[in-house]
Amino acid sequence: MDDLKVVTVGVAKQIAEQIRASILEGRLTPNEKLPTEEEMAARFGVSRPTVREALKRLAAQNLIRSKRGPGGGNFVNETTLDQVAPIVTEAATMLATLSEFPMDDVFEARLELEGVCLRRAIEIGDPALAQRLAVELDIQRDEAISDEEFCASDVRFHRTIVDACGNLFIRLALYTVTEALMPITNMIITRTRSRSVMVERHDALARAIAERDAAAAQAALAEVIAYRRGEYAKAADRR
């Protein structure tokens, strides 16, 4: 019986992955109604409980929703950045922990991609951006916060810049950096990096953004990433 349960769960996972792929690839569109459990059971050649398990998996990922009553059933949710981003982040985190990404590539990509976000954010000129960065700088200057809190604020600081670029696709691409790779590199350099140096570089970047000085901002971002790159190399040598 236990073997049967494992097989059933494995099949349900496969069905859920097929449906998820159809949603993410656009073959199933937002608000489209899925076939009934009975129809899907016949289509996949499985039992209705197996289909039900697959649907539970999709609902847990916020990819579908159920509606009861007349006209009810299971419907495709409108896929948002917040729903897709964790999937991208999870994959990037796994690849990074398996050392599939050369760290030099990561730092280089971050400089180029975040540089694009920085340029676009300055062009848009949202005054609230400087205010949000100032909030994170105040947090980072607090010597009483833990390393975990400092790193979390560091991630929010750079995510704020990325989010201000005004392009959803670029934001999604940068999720692999801000939500997956930054926490990993932060964890590795915690023992070697200086908080005060990081705050000093963040402050220079925030001031350049507030002054809408694109050249100074790009130079400040390069200093931020160069410092992290150097500290990562030191930490890697110690390891």
Compact description:
The protein has 239 residues and is mainly alpha-helical. Helices cover 74% and strands 3% of the residues. Residues 1-7 have low confidence and may be disordered.
Word description of this protein:
The protein has a two-stranded antiparallel ribbon. The protein has two domains: 2-76, Winged helix-like DNA-binding domain superfamily/Winged helix DNA-binding domain (Arc Repressor Mutant, subunit A); 81-238, GntR ligand-binding domain-like (Four Helix Bundle (Hemerythrin (Met), subunit A), Up-down Bundle), CATH 1.20.120. The protein has ten helices and two strands, in the order αααββααααααα. Residues 1-7 have low confidence and may be disordered. Helix 2 (37-44) packs across helix 3, helix 5 packs across helix 7 and helix 9 (195-210) packs antiparallel against helix 10. By secondary structure, the chain is mainly α.
Features:
239 residues, mainly alpha, Four Helix Bundle (Hemerythrin (Met), subunit A), two-stranded antiparallel ribbon, 74% helix, elongated
Topology:
Elements: H1 2-24, H2 37-44, H3 48-60, E1 64-67, E2 73-76, H4 81-97, H5 103-124, H6 127-141, H7 147-163, H8 168-189, H9 195-210, H10 214-238
Antiparallel strand pairs: 1-2
**Average predicted confidence as pLDDT:** 86
* CATH architecture grouping of the largest domain: Up-down Bundle
In total, the number of strands is: 2
Main sheet, how many strands, which sense, barrel?
2 strands, antiparallel
Total tally of structural domains: 2
Number of helices: 10
Q: β content, as a range?
A: under 5%
CATH superfamily of the largest domain: GntR ligand-binding domain-like
The CATH first-level class of the largest domain comes to Mainly Alpha
